[in-house]
Amino acid sequence: MAEEATNGASAGVAISGVLVQVSVPASKAEEAVTFYKAAFGAEEVRRSSCSKRKADQEQPALLCAELKIGSASFLICGQIEDSTVVKGEVAPVLIRVQVDDVEGAVSKAVQAGAQLQGEISEDEAACGGGALGKLVDPFGVSWAVIAPAKVTEVEA
What we know:
It holds the Pfam family At5g48480-like_N. This protein is an alpha/beta fold.
């Protein structure tokens, strides 16, 4: 027998939003920001840098940058010694990007350094039956570049 689902939690805690945090080695954080700008046209909203820097660094190390693709924001954070990310444990996360031109978006991401996994296909797995391109970026993050299925009128 199916259980009844209850949406939401008690009104005691107000959650104002959710941001995906992509953690990369601290030495690769700037490279990651540059990649997401080139591959997906990300816009940098804000950043925070570490006030301490090593003698060989020209600029302070990037701690975290908030990027925006379309209407969605996410964080790129450099992993440091006391990072909140548990090393050695990986959660299966896939970031979906919805576009009008899957081939064009995938091509741009590949030119920036992403790897296409398989071929672009018209696939039911795209949750709507549209075109789907699967990518893995240079930092190990999986991306699904999708276009919604074209709507056709059904003749009566």
